[in-house]
Structures are given as C-alpha cells and as structure tokens.
C-alpha cells in the first residue's frame, strides 16, 4: 500500500482502541486523561504511512470531537451520503489535506484552564511544513476537540456557514 491516502481515511475503530483514543467500558484511557497524549495518539495514526483516523465513522467522530461539533459533522456526512454527495469536510482536518506522507511530527499542548488546552502540531507533509492548531476541552468522558484551525479557516467554521 502507498503511504498516501485519498480522501478522508476509514480505519477500523478497533485500531483507535489500540492506541487509547477512545475510552473503553473499563474506564478512561491514558490518552483521554492527558491532552498531550490524546493529540499525540491522533497524529501517531498518520506517521509512517498510517491511514489516519476514520472520520467516516460516527462513533469515532463522537469520541474525538465535542458533542455539538461531532453531531454537526455526523449530520453533514449522513445528509451528503443520502444525496450521493460529498460533505463539507473534503479532506482530513488533522493534516489539512486529502493526501499525506507525514514526517517530523511535533506535538505540543499547553493548558489554558483545568478543562481547556491548546494543541500545536507541526509536521512536514510531502516535505512541506504545516502547522495545525487544536482547541481542546475536557469533558466527563475525557479530552475532546472543540475546533481545528488551519491557515485558511477552521473545522467549526465549516459547519457554521
């Protein structure tokens, strides 16, 4: 398989459970408890030719994003699929691209309050430097993404227009 992927990646949810992105019934995972580990686990899915995260899976979207944003994303995806169309998200928000071959991934997270944090992710995609900003919020279930920012906009912004 090629190290690049077209469109939004579709991995098995079981793969995410293996890296601790999704809380399990036995309790919360380390990644859900620590904002840096949460973000690092997401980006680990993209390194070394990885398939990324399965954003076509509603359960995965709900496990990664805060509820309002997750529901907007799921509804948009469902409506687009029913119409035989592509949703508003036409690429992968974690890499700001449809294809990727990531290297030099660096994840930094700084706490804002006990329940908020900002993630700063830098990497090279096909050799081009990129930077993604994430706003995180701690919920009862663990850390979730409130928004993802790229040079030309944000994930939440896609669903408010």
Description:
The structure is a single chain. By secondary structure, the chain is an alpha+beta fold. It has a single domain (13-158), classed as Nuclear Transport Factor 2, Chain: A. Helix content is 29%, strand content 28%. The protein has helices at 13-18, 30-33, 35-44, 58-64, 67-82, 155-158, and strands spanning 102-113, 116-125, 128-139, 142-150, 153-154. It has a 5-stranded antiparallel sheet with strand order 1-2-3-4-5. Residues 1-20 and 22-29 have low confidence and may be disordered.
Low-confidence stretches: 1-20, 22-29
Give the biggest sheet: 5 strands, antiparallel
Give me the CATH fold name: Nuclear Transport Factor 2, Chain: A
Count of individual beta strands: 5
Helical fraction equals 25-40%
Query: What number is the mean pLDDT?
Result: 84
CATH class membership = Alpha Beta
- Count of discrete domains: 1
Number of helices: 6
Order of helices and strands: HHHHHEEEEEH
Cα gyration radius (Å): 15 Å
Structural class: alpha+beta
- The CATH level-2 architecture is identified as Roll
Q: What fraction of residues sit in β-strands? A: 25-35%
Give the overall shape, derived from the CA principal axes: globular
Question: In angstroms, what separates the terminal alpha carbons?
Answer: 37 Å
What strand line-up does the widest sheet have?
1-2-3-4-5
